[in-house]
C-alpha cells in the first residue's frame, strides 16, 4: 500500500456552517495549538466541539472531560449526541462531563497542513490539544474507527490522567494470517488511492452508506460538509494510506506500541460494537477484549460501522460512566471503612463433573443414545467408559493448547459424544458455548460469531456451516473424516485424535468455582438470542437445586427431550437417555420414542418441552402394551419452557398414570425458578385469580414483583406484596452471572432489581415477565413486559383477558394486543375460531358481541385469524408484538392478509 504524499498546501480552519441538524453552534470553536513532532515551531488551528463554556454558563463544574476522536472520513459531528446527552444530564442534576470532540488536523473543519501525519504524529497532536484545552483533571477517551488507536495511544502514554477508556468499532492489531478488510484494500489499492479518496467522494459515500437504517439526507449532508472539494479531502486519502498494512509501514511501530500498551491499562473500559461492520470485524473486538480483559463489552445486534448514528450509544456511555467511572472520580463510592456485614462464604459446591469421576470404576450404564441414525440397538455407555473418555478428551484438548477461559463452540447433537466433550471442556476450564439449530442458520451464525470461539467442535453439518459462514475458531470434527473431507471443512483434528493425544497426557488443575463455565444462548423468542454466562459454581447450584427438589438419586434415571437439561445426568450421578428425536425440533418427539427411552433406562423422571408434550400426546395411539407398561413406571413428569394447559398435562399424565406432573417455570437465565404440580394447577384454577399460576420458588430462590407505573414501566421497589401486578424479579444461587458482551442488557436486567436489605453477594434479575404473587406466595404470570398495553386508564396485562375470551365456545385461542399511541392505546382481541376461519378479517358481529361480553376489558375491535403467530421456538408462546403491528395495519385498511 502506498504511503501518504510528503507535502500538501496548507488550508485554514473554519467553523461549520449554521443549521447542521443536532449540532449546537455554542459548542463549536477554533483553537490554536502549538505544533509538536513534525510540526514543532508552528501553531495549528483546530476545530472542536466543546461543551465547557455551556457548562460554565450554567454554573456547573465538570467532574472530568470526555475527549472524543473521530475516524476516517467523519468529523466531530459524529459525537454530537454524547455532547447533547452530557449537557442534558448536567442540567437535570446528574454528573457533568465536559465533552471535547476534535476535528483531527487535515480532517473536518480543522486546518489542512503540509505535513504527512502518521499515527505517532496524530497521537502527539491529540496530546498537544489536550494540554491546551484540558491541562488538568481526569480524562476519559472515546474513539471510533482510526480514532480508536489515536485516542488509545494517548491513553497508554498518560495513565496518570486517565479515568476511563471507551472505544466504538475499532482495532489496534491486524493478525498476520488475515487480510486487511476488503473495503480498505479497495480504497488503498495502488493507483486507486487518490481516485477513491481524494479526487472523488467514493470513500466518503461508501462509508456513509454503511449506516442501517440509512442516514437522514440532512445528516448525510452534514457529514459531507467539510469535504465538498478535493483539496479538503486530502486527509481522507492520507488516513487510508497510513493504515499499517505491512511490518515495514512507518506507522507499524506506533500501532504495536498502542496494542502492547493496552495490556497495562487497568482503568474502567467500555467496548461498544456494531457487529455488521465490514471493516472492523469480530476478531478485532476479540483482540481488544483479550488485551483488556476487565473491559465491559456491549454488542448492538443489527448495528454496523457507524454505530454512533445507528443506536443510542450516548445513553449507554453516560450510564456506564455513572456506574464505573464517576464513583472513583468524585469519591462518591462506598465508604471502605464501613463495609457491610457479609455472611461467611458457604463451602464450594462439588464441581459438575465430580459424580462422573466418582463412578469411574462403575460398569453400570451412564448414558444411553436412542438415536436411530446409526441403525441397530441403542448405544449404552458405562460410567467407566464415559469417565475415561472425558479425561482423555480433556487432557488432549489441553495438549493442543486449549486453556482455561478459551471458548469452545459445541455443534454436536445431545448424546454420549456431546456429553463427553462437554464434561471434558468443563474439567479443564474451557468455556462451553451452546447455541442450538433451533435458532435457524442466521440466528445460529449470529450467536457463534458473537461468542468468538477459539475452537469449534461439530458434526459434518455444523462444520460445513462454520466453513461457509466464516465462523472463527480451530475446527475439530466429532467423527473421523477422510483426509479430503477434513481439508474441505478446515478440520485440524478429530475427537478420536484428540482423545489419543490425551491418553499419555496429564490433566491441568481444575478451574475455580467462580470461573466462567458456559455461555448458553437463549431461544431468541424475545429478540436476538443472548449468550447467558454461567460460572462453575452456578451450574453446580443448578444441579443441586434440581437434585434436591425432584429427589434425584443414583437409581432415578432420567429421560429428557428438553435441550437445556439433556446433559445433566452425569452431573446428577444418574443414568440418562435422550429419546430418538431432533432436540432442536421438539415436535419430532413421539410417544413411542419416549416409551422406548424409558424402558431402556428404567427412568423414573421424564423431562420434556411443551411442544414435545403436545406431539407425544398426539401420537399416543401408536403405543403398545409394553410401551404403556414402561410409561407406568415413571414417577415424575416435568414440562417447562412455556405455559402448558391443564388439558395437555392431564392427557400426558394419562400416559404416565403414576407420575406427578410438574411445570417448573424458568428461563435460560435461571433454569429453575418456581414449580407447580398438576393438583396445584387444578387448585389454582379454582381460586379465580387471573394469569397462569407457575407455583412457589424452588429451594433458596426468591421471587418479588416490581410494580408498573402508568407508562407500563416497572419502577416500583421489588416486594412480595400479594395481588400487585408488575415485573417479575428473581434471585437464586443458580441465577446466571451475566450476559456475554451485552453490558447494557445485563445492567438493565439487574438495575434496581435488588430489594431493600439485599445482601451484597446476592444477584437479582429482572425477567421481563409480568405477573403477581398470591397470598400463598405462588407466582402468576400475566404476560411479557413489552406486551403490556398502556391505556388511558393504566397498564393492562394481556393473559387474564385472554383467558376470559378463551371461554367463548367459538374461540380456540386468543391474544389481546394494543393499537394506537403509547399512553392511549386501545385493546384489540385477535382470536382463532372453531371451526377455523379461512382468512384474517374483522370478526362477524355475533362473535364480536360474545367476545366483548366475556371480559371486562373494553375492546376496540375483535379480529379473526386462522393461526395466531408464535415465536420461532415455542409454539405455545404467541408473538403479540407481531400481532399488534398487524392489527394496527388491518384496522387502518392496509393489510388484509394474515399476520
Amino acid at each position: 500500500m502506498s504511503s501518504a504524499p510528503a507535502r500538501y498546501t496548507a488550508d485554514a480552519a473554519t467553523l461549520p456552517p449554521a443549521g447542521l441538524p443536532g449540532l449546537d453552534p455554542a459548542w463549536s470553536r477554533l483553537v490554536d495549538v502549538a505544533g509538536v513532532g513534525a510540526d514543532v515551531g508552528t501553531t495549528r488551528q483546530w476545530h472542536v466541539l466543546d461543551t465547557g463554556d455551556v457548562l460554565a454558563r450554567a454554573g456547573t463544574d465538570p467532574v472530568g472531560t470526555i475527549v472524543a476522536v473521530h475516524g476516517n472520513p467523519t468529523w466531530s459531528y459524529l459525537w454530537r449526541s454524547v455532547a447533547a446527552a452530557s449537557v442534558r444530564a448536567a442540567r437535570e442534576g446528574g454528573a457533568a462531563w465536559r465533552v471535547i470532540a476534535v476535528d483531527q488536523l487535515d480532517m473536518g473543519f480543522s486546518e489542512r497542513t503540509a505535513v504527512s501525519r502518521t499515527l505517532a504524529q496524530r497521537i502527539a497532536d491529540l496530546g498537544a490539544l489536550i494540554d491546551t484545552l484540558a491541562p488538568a483533571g481526569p480524562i476519559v477517551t472515546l474513539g471510533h474507527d482510526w480514532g480508536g488507536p489515536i485516542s488509545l495511544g494517548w491513553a497508554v502514554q498518560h495513565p496518570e490522567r486517565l479515568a476511563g477508556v471507551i472505544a466504538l468499532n475499532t482495532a489496534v492489531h491486524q493478525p498476520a494470517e488475515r487480510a486487511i478488510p476488503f473495503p480498505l484494500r479497495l480504497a488503498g489499492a495502488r493507483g486507486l488511492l487518490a481516485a477513491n479518496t481524494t479526487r472523488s467522494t467514493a470513500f466518503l459515500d461508501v462509508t456513509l452508506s454503511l449506516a442501517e437504517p440509512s442516514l437522514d439526507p440532512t445528516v448525510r449532508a452534514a457529514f459531507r460538509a467539510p469535504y465538498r472539494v478535493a483539496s479538503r479531502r486530502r486527509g481522507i486519502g492520507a488516513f487510508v494510506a497510513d493504515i499499517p498494512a505491512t511490518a515495514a509501514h512507518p506507522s507499524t511501530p506506533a500501532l504495536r506500541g498502542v496494542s502492547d500498551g493496552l495490556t497495562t491499562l487497568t482503568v474502567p473500559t467500555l467496548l461498544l460494537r456494531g457487529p455488521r461492520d465490514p471493516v472492523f470485524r469480530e476478531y478485532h473486538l476479540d483482540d481488544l477484549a483479550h488485551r483488556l480483559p476487565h473491559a465491559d463489552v456491549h454488542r448492538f445486534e443489527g448495528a454496523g460501522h457507524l454505530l454512533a448514528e445507528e443506536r443510542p450509544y450516548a445513553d449507554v456511555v453516560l450510564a456506564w460512566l455513572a456506574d464505573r467511572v464517576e464513583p472513583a472520580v468524585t469519591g462518591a463510592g462506598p465508604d471502605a471503612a464501613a463495609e457491610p456485614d457479609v455472611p461467611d462464604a458457604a463451602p464450594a459446591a462439588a464441581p459438575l463433573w465430580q459424580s462422573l469421576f466418582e463412578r469411574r470404576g462403575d460398569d453400570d450404564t451412564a448414558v444411553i443414545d436412542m438415536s436411530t441414525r446409526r441403525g441397530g440397538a441403542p448405544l449404552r455407555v458405562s460410567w467407566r467408559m464415559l469417565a475415561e473418555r472425558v479425561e482423555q478428551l480433556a487432557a488432549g484438548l489441553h495438549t493442543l493448547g486449549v486453556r482455561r477461559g478459551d471458548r469452545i463452540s459445541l455443534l454436536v447433537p445431545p448424546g454420549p459424544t456431546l456429553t463427553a466433550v462437554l464434561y471434558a471442556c468443563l474439567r479443564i476450564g474451557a468455556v462451553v458455548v451452546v447455541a442450538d439449530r433451533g435458532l435457524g442458520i442466521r440466528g445460529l451464525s449470529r450467536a457463534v460469531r458473537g461468542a468468538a470461539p477459539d475452537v469449534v467442535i461439530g458434526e459434518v453439518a455444523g462444520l460445513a456451516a462454520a466453513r461457509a459462514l466464516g465462523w472463527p475458531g480451530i475446527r475439530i470434527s466429532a467423527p473421523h473424516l477422510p483426509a479430503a473431507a477434513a481439508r474441505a471443512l478446515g478440520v485440524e483434528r478429530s475427537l478420536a485424535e484428540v482423545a489419543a493425544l490425551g491418553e499419555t497426557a496429564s490433566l491441568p488443575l481444575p478451574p475455580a468455582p467462580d470461573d466462567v463455565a458456559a455461555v448458553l444462548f437463549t431461544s431468541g423468542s424475545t429478540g436476538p438470542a443472548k449468550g447467558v454466562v454461567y460460572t462453575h459454581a452456578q451450574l453446580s447450584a443448578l444441579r443441586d437445586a434440581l437434585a434436591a427438589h425432584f429427589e434425584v438419586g443414583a437409581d432415578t434415571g432420567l429421560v429428557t427431550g428438553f435441550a437445556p437439561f439433556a446433559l445433566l445426568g452425569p452431573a446428577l450421578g444418574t443414568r440418562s437417555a435422550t429419546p430418538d428425536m431432533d432436540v432442536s425440533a421438539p415436535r419430532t418427539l413421539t410417544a413411542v420414542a419416549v416409551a422406548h427411552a424409558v424402558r431402556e433406562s428404567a427412568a423414573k423422571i421424564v423431562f420434556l418441552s411443551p411442544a414435545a408434550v403436545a406431539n407425544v400426546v398426539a401420537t399416543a395411539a401408536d403405543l403398545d402394551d409394553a410401551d404403556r407398561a414402561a410409561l407406568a413406571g415413571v414417577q415424575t413428569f416435568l414440562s417447562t419452557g412455556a405455559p402448558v394447559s391443564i388439558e395437555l398435562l392431564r392427557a400426558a399424565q394419562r400416559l404416565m398414570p403414576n407420575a406427578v406432573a410438574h411445570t417448573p417455570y424458568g428461563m435460560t437465565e435461571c433454569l429453575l425458578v418456581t414449580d407447580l404440580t398438576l393438583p396445584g394447577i387444578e387448585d389454582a384454577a379454582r381460586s379465580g385469580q387471573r394469569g397462569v399460576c407457575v407455583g412457589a420458588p424452588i429451594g433458596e430462590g426468591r421471587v418479588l414483583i416490581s410494580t408498573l407505573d402508568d407508562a407500563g414501566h416497572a419502577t416500583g421497589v421489588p416486594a412480595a406484596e400479594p395481588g400487585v401486578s408488575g415485573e417479575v424479579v428473581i434471585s437464586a444461587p443458580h441465577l446466571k452471572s451475566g450476559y456475554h458482551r451485552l453490558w447494557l442488557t445485563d445492567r438493565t436486567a439487574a438495575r434496581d432489581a435488588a430489594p431493600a436489605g439485599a445482601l451484597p453477594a446476592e444477584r437479582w434479575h429482572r425477567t421481563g415477565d409480568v405477573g403477581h404473587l398470591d397470598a400463598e406466595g405462588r407466582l402468576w404470570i400475566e404476560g411479557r413486559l413489552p406486551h403490556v398495553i398502556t391505556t388511558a386508564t393504566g397498564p393492562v396485562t394481556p393473559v387474564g383477558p385472554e383467558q376470559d375470551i378463551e371461554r367463548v365456545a367459538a374461540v380456540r385461542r386468543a391474544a389481546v394486543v394494543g393499537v394506537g399511541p403509547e399512553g392511549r392505546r386501545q385493546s384489540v382481541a385477535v382470536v382463532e375460531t372453531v371451526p377455523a376461519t379461512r382468512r384474517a378479517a374483522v370478526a362477524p358481529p355475533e362473535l364480536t358481541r360474545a367476545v366483548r361480553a366475556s371480559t371486562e376489558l373494553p375492546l376496540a375491535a375483535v379480529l379473526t385469524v386462522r393461526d395466531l403467530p408464535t415465536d420461532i421456538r415455542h409454539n405455545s408462546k404467541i408473538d403479540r408484538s407481531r400481532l399488534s403491528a398487524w392489527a394496527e395495519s388491518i384496522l387502518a385498511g392496509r393489510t388484509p392478509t394474515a399476520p
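Residues 1-9, 335-343 have pLDDT under 50 and may be disordered. The CA atoms of residues 256 and 867 lie 59 Å apart.
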